[in-house]
Amino acid sequence: MIPLRIRIGVLGLALLSGFSTPTAASAAEAAPSPTVEERRLDRAVPQEILRRSGFDTVAPRFARVLDGARSYAQARRAVVREGTQLWRRAVDRAQGRGPAEYEGREALPWKGGGGRRAGLSRDDDRPLYWARLALTREVRTWEPEFGLTDGQRAALLDELERTSRGQTAIGYPHGKGLKRILVTGFDPFTLDRDIRISNPSGATALALDGTVIETADGPARIETAVFPVRWRDFTQGTVERTLRPYLPKVDLFTTVSQGRVGRFDVERTNGAWRGGFADNDNIGRTETVPVTDPASQPQWTTTTLPYRAITAADTGRFPVYDNTSVTEIPAGGTQSVVRPDGPTPGSTARAGGGGDYLSNEIAYRATLLRDRLGLHDVLPGGHVHTPVLQFDAENTTEVTDPEFVRNRLDIITQVRTILKVAAEES
User: Fold this and answer.
1) How far apart are CA 86 and CA 166, in angstroms?
2) Cys-Cys with 185: which of 201, 378, 404, 419 at CB 3.0–4.6 Å?
3) Max CA distance (Å), the chain
4) Measured at the alpha carbon of residue 204, what is the angle toward residues 86 and 139, in degrees to the nearest 5?
């Protein structure tokens, strides 16, 4: 996710403790309109993805559950339950569990169209994304008879976002001899450019959540979560709130996002700058990354992943690079300069190796949190960019094709191997 003014690879702490417990609404307040992101749901492609995955039944059932709530407390319990179930259903589907009729039969040709289309392959992250938006739209526009305050509605949306992204489901077995790995992914983005887009980092999170990899040092358990592509959520501390409880307990973490065409990158340096590229609500931000205690905020943070071992290993089909480039304003200067070998002393960040978008920001926030927790020298962590997930070159209209599925599966497999290498070197 690297909008450095949209180069070709781009298809690639006021820590909130949560909303305070709301008081009962004295009168109904008008429900807000759906967001820009939610309004895309009505287009043909999202509806096809939901239908072909079987996730088209999620929102209608949720609406009935909401309508049955007779108080805010009942609604909150329903939202937590349904959000958690949506995450679990998406993970189960990605890992081969769940209804066989939605497994996807990719042998059905996509070219020529016509007739009944097959289901989508299980590795697809898009059903979760669009189903979640269908649920948030239900909550956002819901007007129960007992009335909701703005704060109560916001709290319900917060619960739904966190539970349906796996952020509240992270957990590792007790006992010795098991390494703990934490991985994050992202939603699809740049949907107004191509609404069919899938994000391989989100697909990876679904495929790897709760799985165990065997390393030379023994088993390693992977837990995952997915984050939105929205500046607002990052400003409100969603990264820190999710990761803070777990970084002191894990042996390795990596944030993951889509980056350049045809390559993986281990990003060496992350910058404290937002470059203004529009998010999924078509909102841009151009500013220093807002964090708690800005007086002590560094312009740069660095990876502690074993990047030399990762780039030297044969991890899969795509080459893996140690990316050291950044963009900075040198100390005493006024103009941005690209530095292939990393920042110079006293410089001001304008882009990390991962750009100036939310992929750079999650890497910056996660590694800054690592450092503020005093874990820089003991916890390997950083950011990995995957290749851009590409369709077959002849496919400009269909939501999937065999090459698209192959590319996504290869990326997922290679991320898993990269994690194995990193765990063995940590």
Assistant:
1) 9
2) 201
3) 65
4) 25
Phi and psi torsions of 21, nearest 5°: -60, 120
Return the closest-CA partner of residue 184 out of 242, 224, 240: 224
Question: DSSP 3-state assignment of 251?
Answer: coil
Q: Are strands 218-227 and 212-215 parallel, antiparallel or unpaired?
A: antiparallel
DSSP state of 279: -
The yes-or-no verdict on residue 191 having pLDDT over 80 is yes
Within 13 Å and on the Cβ side, how many CA atoms surround 12?
Answer: 28
Rounded Cα distance, 68 and 78, in Å: 10
Distances (CA, A) of 165 to 18, 85, 162, 232: 16, 11, 5, 16
Residue from 284, 184, 177, 169 nearest 220 by CA = 177
Q: Is 84 helix (H, G, I), strand (E, B) or coil?
A: helix
Residue 77: half-sphere exposure toward Cβ, Cα within 13 Å: 6
Per the DSSP assignment, residues forming a β-bridge with 109 are none
> In the structure encoding, which two tokens stand for residue 12, read together?
């690639």
Contacts 24+ apart (CB under 8 A), 43-50: 43/195, 45/195, 45/196, 45/399, 46/130, 46/133, 46/195, 48/117, 48/399, 49/120, 49/124, 49/126, 49/127, 49/130, 49/399, 50/127, 50/130, 50/131, 50/134
For the whole model, what pTM was predicted? 0.91
Check if the beta carbon of residue 202 is closer than 8 Å to that of residue 280: no
Which amino acid is located at 417 in the chain?
Answer: T
Q: What is the DSSP letter of 6?
A: S
Q: Is the pLDDT of residue 248 over 60?
A: yes
Does residue 11 register a pLDDT over 60? no
Q: Where are the beta strands (DSSP E) in 232-296?
A: 252-258, 264-267, 269-271, 273-275, 286-288
